[in-house]
């Protein structure tokens, strides 16, 4: 309502059009200037609902704005002699238009095309095909293809139903649909590719689109087909690339629909573009699913329970690239009164980074369960990485928590320091001397820092994606994170992570992934009886 009130207060008139050219909003000032009620214009194409705009020149102006995404202006004469300036402002979702009385009278426009001419339709179809082709080149995943076909191709050709299928293991698997019931989709899903007994199968086997203007045409070849969905007209468009079937796109209509030769040609051309987009999107989704599966397999599914210790962790992928990366965390239980906390960041945001992350995490875990001190855990893992020579560097923090003594031993390898929040809320970074990144110098030394951990304290381990901001000093960002942690409610650690991510602006567009591990000591566990001299700490996931 506020936007409409704003438009009403502006001089002249305002209106909005979607990407197909249909009016979606029109102000009272625009109605007065155009000489027509809003009820007769909303949902229509202006060059069809206003006869004095029935000139291909004006439709071309609109199509130019849609394709170029640049503002376009032109002057038009509303009979008998009122001149109007129309300014179009496009973006990816549609066009906003301003209509103002013209200050001068330009030469009269060219004589309008007679109603029997097909020039406007041809010009519109050409622009339509160009626009849709450009849109199809920008889609990324299969769902993007489905949404584009449903939101743009369906309304452009007046269709009420859509079934988009992909070829999979010799069958057509429905990946998206509109205008069909669940029962109908289940019945149509999984049809065999190599059959001529269905219109989709024959279209794919022959590579020739099939158009049925009414149920009678369909019934002559496929007697039972019209009974499946209750639709009245269909276009079966085979999606084929270099002779290889990719899938099938079916547009359907609730009423009989004639398919003129020009419309058939445009739909056939679009089918080739949809096939390429769907094939490309399927490959992208497959790679992304594989990468995500790898990432999830390498991160811990659950964290072990440690008496007296509350734990929460979160991994947030980057919003660019393949949504995977090399950030990792872990909590290793070492006996009844000890644990190890690990966090690290492998350089890169790809499958190689995720794979190396798994190797680093496995190396740290193996050395930790053998009872190695923090500096030795990092030193041995570092030698492993230098032997592997992965050409990727890794930062890491390893902390050994002796809960019975209330002490923490910490070693770092080029990683941001953890934050320590005391029971009274006072929070600051832990002052440690970090060693170099892992994987550079096989003889690197990693100094150990020790500090007390009292009941009520919270330790926060994080990766640089949470604190690095272009143009902001890293120390300032860490200090701000410490301030947020100190003022937050620590009774629920999962909610605390949500709060830190939200307030640190890590929920929007991110170029780096984030790992965050929180440990809160409720109370120190009882001191166990003395162990045998040869007994080592027990590793229990």
Write a structural description.
The chain is 36% helix and 26% strand. It is built from 16 helices and 22 strands. It has a six-stranded antiparallel beta sheet, sandwiched between helices. Helix 7 packs antiparallel against helix 12, helix 12 (261-298) runs parallel beside helix 13 and helix 13 (351-369) packs across helix 14 (374-388).
Low-confidence spans: pLDDT under 50, at least 5 residues? 104-122, 531-541
What does the radius of gyration come to? 32 Å
**DSSP strand tally:** 22
On the 0-100 scale, what is the average pLDDT? 83
Helix-strand layout with pairing:
Blueprint: H1 2-9, E1 13-17, E2 23-26, H2 28-34, H3 38-41, H4 46-49, H5 56-68, E3 72-78, E4 82-91, E5 94-101, H6 119-136, H7 142-156, E6 161-168, E7 171-178, H8 182-188, E8 191-192, H9 199-206, E9 210-212, H10 215-221, H11 225-229, E10 233-241, E11 244-253, H12 261-298, E12 309-316, E13 326-334, E14 338-346, H13 351-369, H14 374-388, E15 394-402, E16 407-413, E17 419-421, E18 427-429, E19 448-452, E20 458-462, H15 474-487, H16 493-503, E21 514-521, E22 539-540
Antiparallel strand pairs: 1-2, 1-5, 3-4, 4-5, 6-7, 6-11, 7-8, 9-10, 10-11, 12-21, 13-14, 13-22, 14-15, 15-16, 16-19, 17-18, 17-20, 20-21
Helix pairs in contact: 5-6, 6-7, 6-12, 7-12, 12-13, 13-14
Briefly characterize the structure.
This protein has 541 residues and is α+β, with helices and mostly antiparallel strands.
List the main descriptive attributes of the protein structure presented here.
541 residues; alpha+beta; 6-stranded antiparallel sheet; 36% helix; 26% strand; disordered C terminus
């Amino acid at each position: 309502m506020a936007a409409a009130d704003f438009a009403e207060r502006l001089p002249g008139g305002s209106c909005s059009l979607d990407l197909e050219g249909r009016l979606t909003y029109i102000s009272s000032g625009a109605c007065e200037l155009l000489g027509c009620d809003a009820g007769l214009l909303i949902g229509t194409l202006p060059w069809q609902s206003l006869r004095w705009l029935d000139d291909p020149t004006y439709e071309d102006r609109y199509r130019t704005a849609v394709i170029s995404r640049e503002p376009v202006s032109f002057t038009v004469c509303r009979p008998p002699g009122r001149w109007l300036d129309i300014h179009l402002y496009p973006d990816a979702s549609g066009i906003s238009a301003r209509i103002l009385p013209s200050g001068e009278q330009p030469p009269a426009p060219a004589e309008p095309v007679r109603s029997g001419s097909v020039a406007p339709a041809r010009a519109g179809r050409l622009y339509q095909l160009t626009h849709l082709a450009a849109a199809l080149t920008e889609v990324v995943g299969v769902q993007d293809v489905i949404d584009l076909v449903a939101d743009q191709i369906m309304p452009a050709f007046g269709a009420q139903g859509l079934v988009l299928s992909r070829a999979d293991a010799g069958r057509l698997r429905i990946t998206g649909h509109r205008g069909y019931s669940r029962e109908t989709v289940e019945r149509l899903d999984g049809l065999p590719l190599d059959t001529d007994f269905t219109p989709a199968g024959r279209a794919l086997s022959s590579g020739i689109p099939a158009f049925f203007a009414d149920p009678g045409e369909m019934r002559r070849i496929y007697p039972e087909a019209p009974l499946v969905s209750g639709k009245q007209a269909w276009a079966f468009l085979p999606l084929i690339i270099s002779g290889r079937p990719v899938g099938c796109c079916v547009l359907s209509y609730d009423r009989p629909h004639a398919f003129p030769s020009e419309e058939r040609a445009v739909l056939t051309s679009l089918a080739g573009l949809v096939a390429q987009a769907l094939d490309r999107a399927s490959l992208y989704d497959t790679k992304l699913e594989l990468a995500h599966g790898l990432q999830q397999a390498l991160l811990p599914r659950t964290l072990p329970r440690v008496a007296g210790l509350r734990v929460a962790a979160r991994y947030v992928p980057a919003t660019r690239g393949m949504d995977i990366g090399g950030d990792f965390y872990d909590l290793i239980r070492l006996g009844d009164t000890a644990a190890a906390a690990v966090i690290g960041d492998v350089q890169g945001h790809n499958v190689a980074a995720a794979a190396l992350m798994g190797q680093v995490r496995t190396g740290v875990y193996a050395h930790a369960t053998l009872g190695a001190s923090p500096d030795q855990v990092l030193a041995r893992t570092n030698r492993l990485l230098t032997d592997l020579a992965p050409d990727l560097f890794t930062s890491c923090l390893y902390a050994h928590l002796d809960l019975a003594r209330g002490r923490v031993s910490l070693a770092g390898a080029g990683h941001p320091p953890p934050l320590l929040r005391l029971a009274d809320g006072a929070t600051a970074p832990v002052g440690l001397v970090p060693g170099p990144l892992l994987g550079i110098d096989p003889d690197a030394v990693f100094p150990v820092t020790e500090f007390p951990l009292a009941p009520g304290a919270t330790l926060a381990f994080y990766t640089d994606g949470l604190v690095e901001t272009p143009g902001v000093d890293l120390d300032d960002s860490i200090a701000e994170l410490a301030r947020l942690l100190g003022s937050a409610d620590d009774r629920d650690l999962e909610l605390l992570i949500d709060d830190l991510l939200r307030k640190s602006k890590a929920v929007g567009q991110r170029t780096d992934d984030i790992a965050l591990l929180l440990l809160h000591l409720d109370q120190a566990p009882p001191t166990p009886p003395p162990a045998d001299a040869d007994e080592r700490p027990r590793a229990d996931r």
